[in-house]
Amino acid sequence: MSSRADGHFRRAFLFLFVGGIGFVVDAGLYNLLVFLGGRGPLFELPLLAKIIAILGATVVTYVGNRSLTYRDRRVPPTFRQLLLFSALNVIAILLQLACLGFSRYVLGLSDPIADNISGTLIGQALATVFRYFTYSRFVFPTQEESPAK
Q1: How many whole angstroms separate alpha carbon 105 and alpha carbon 100?
Q2: What is the mean predicted confidence (pLDDT) over 94-105?
Q3: For position 147, what pLDDT does the model report?
Q4: What distances in angstroms separate CA 101 from CA 8, 12, 105, one per listed residue?
Q5: Long-range contacts of 17-24 (CB under 8 A, 24+ apart)
Q6: How many domains are contained in the chain?
Q7: Of 59, 62, 41, 57, nearest to 119 (Cα)?
Q8: Which of 31, 49, 85, 118 makes an SS bond possible with 42, Cβ 3.0 to 4.6 Å?
Q9: Angle made by CA atoms 72, 145, 75, in degrees to the nearest 5
Q10: Closest to 49 measured CA to CA, from 36, 37, 31
Q11: pLDDT one-digit tens code per residue, 108-125
Q12: Could you list the residue range(s) of the whole structural domain that residue 73 is in?
């Protein structure tokens, strides 16, 4: 049991490490697009900017998770895996956009602090929990969980 728990904590740490890099890409790109020079090129389109930022971070985290977090799972990349990864990321993106949209359009907050708390911190936290459990089960399963060929 101890080695299984150690493996779980190791994987969670690596997942959070890779996610931290993705977080920096997401936050950095979003802030450049929305707040560069006080009012960035996508200031009026924050949801589009968030989608672009998340897509950039998604590429980084897929590569990081595939090569670091789940490197011990010898399931070769397949079209099914990429399709599942994409579908789960769409759900995770919607979680982040819902947080940002609520802050912007329901609460009427549009400053950098509000956007970063709602879309980047809260939205990212919800999306990260969702991704950790769904990636482990569906995208990068153990050999026992892999679908039959």
Answers
A1: 8
A2: 94
A3: 54
A4: 34, 29, 6
A5: 17/68, 18/60, 18/61, 18/64, 18/65, 18/68, 18/69, 19/61, 19/128, 19/131, 21/60, 21/61, 21/64, 22/57, 22/58, 22/60, 22/61, 22/64, 23/57, 23/120, 23/124
A6: 1
A7: 57
A8: 49
A9: 40
A10: 31
A11: 998 999 999 998 899 989
A12: 2-145
Mean confidence (pLDDT) of the chain:
88
Tens digits of per-residue pLDDT, 29-80? Answer: 999 999 999 999 999 999 999 999 988 998 898 889 888 998 887 667 778 8
Residue with tokens 């999306």: 127
Q: What are the tokens at 111?
A: 């400053």
Residues 39 and 64: their CA atoms lie apart, in Å, by: 32
Task: Read off the amino acid at residue 71.
Answer: R
